[in-house]
Amino acid sequence: MQGVELIYAYLAVLRILESPHYLRYSTEMSNDPFSDILKFANAETVVSGGFTAGGRWAIRFPEMEKVKFSAIVRGDCWLSIKGEELSVHAETGDVLLLSTQHSFVLTNDLQSNPVDAASLFTHNASTIAKLGEGDEFFQIGGFVRLDSVSGGLLADVLPPLIHVTASSTQATVLHWLVNQLVHEQAAERPGSTLVSAQLAQLIFVQLVRAHLETSSGELTSGLLRALSDPLIAPALRLMHNNPGHLWHLNELAQAAAMSRTTFALRFKQAAGVTPLTYLTEWRMRLAERALREENAPISIIASRLGYTSISAFSNAFKRVTGNAPKRYRSIVRTTQ
Questions:
Q1: Do residues 270 and 226 make contact, with C-beta atoms less than 8 angstroms apart?
Q2: 20 to 30 Å CA-CA from 154: which of 99, 169, 219, 240?
Q3: How many domains, in total, are found in the chain?
């Protein structure tokens, strides 16, 4: 029971983190940069259903701007992404996350002609469709909605495919979450829609975590590599915990237990930018959301983010985003 209680406590925390009241407090974040990025992108995971299949089968999924996840509950299949030469083999217990916008095919026979996913699911009253004869294969999946404006912060750095195999050490929690998701979908108990969405959200988080843990040495410079680097993590936590503080390079280097020169080099190698450039860009991300979601005067937003004058804030904002704060607020509110 301890594992079950832990998961449901985790779900309760997620509901608090996703509440509108929490999200609106947008210029003061946590000391967990990864959680900040997830909240900032407004990642919302939706369970779209699944399908069983038997015999020779193949199904083509259309191009989508959304991030997709697919869990192989039973059987095995091949994943073939349009434009990619090699196909990926997935087995029972494997979970896939696709951020590519290309169409893709799931099949147990690479020579089979695929049926269109839209027609298969449209003609099935159940959320679990049936393809072919038998049910040797069972897949369940969904997609992740990201904020149309701020979601790019996460979408742009995700790899086209994350494949967590059932034999990996990261699969243990995923296996439990997927099994609970299958049970919720089958039982249709009161509250199952909410619980399924929260379970799917946890699956998404675990998939990205697994990618950070297993690919840290292969990641190119950028946000994900910075998040996975334990040596610069203390400095990142400081900046995310208090973005309005007037941070100096010496303070950040001391938090990371490095010399100023070593820290600056390590940070730029991981993040692709200098520490203070990263801080400025993160502040401007927070400023963008505050300008979209709040009615606070620009002077108040500037002050919360550590700027002592509107002109200094406006210059930084325009340099990073290309627009002055007032114009940005006007544009986004006109298009909403």
A1: yes
A2: 169
A3: 2
